[in-house]
Protein: Superoxide dismutase
Amino acid sequence: MTLQLPELPYSKDALRPFITAETFDYHYGKHHATYVNNLAGLVKDTALSEMTVPQLIQTGFDRQDAAVFNNAAQHWNHTFFWHCLSPDGGGQPAGQLQTLINRDFGSFDQFKTQFSTAAVKLFGAGWAWLALNQQGALEILPLKDAHTPLTAGKTPLLTIDVWEHAYYIDYRNARNKFIDGFWEVVNWDFCHQQLNL
Structure:
C-alpha cells in the first residue's frame, strides 16, 4: 500500500444494489481520497515519508499523533474494506476459516449474528472487525473511529465500515439494512488469505 488512492478491485457499479456508484463516488472518491491526500501532506519532507502505511499507523498511535494515526489508519482500513467485498462474494467461508469460525463461535450463523450485532450497536463512527489474536483465536472487535486491530498486534481478517458516509446515501440511517446486505458480497477468499500472510 502506498500514499496513493488505490484502484478499486471492481467497477463502481459492480456491488449494486448493496453499494451504488454514487456512494462509491463519495465514500471512495472523496472520503478515502481525502485521507490519502492528508497523509501524504503530513509526511512530505519528513522521516515519516520512508515508512509504510502500517508503520505510520503504529508510529502515530505510539506518539499519540492523532493526525498521522487517523489518516494512515483510515487509508489502510478503507483499502482493506474494499477488498473484503466482491461482486462474486457472499455465502459462507470454507477451509481453515470455516473451521476456526465453527470452533470459536459455534457455527457460522452464530458468528454472523454476533458480528452483525457488534456492527449495529457500535455507537457513533467506527469499524467492526473479525481478527485473529496472538493466541490463535478469532475475535470480533467493534472499534471506534479509525482504530484497527493492527495496533493491538492482531491480524485483521474481515471488516465493515459503519461510519455514516459508508451507507447514508443508499440506506439513510438504516445501518442494520446495510449490514444485512454486507453478507451478500463478503469476499471470503480475501479473508481466508489473511490467515496465511
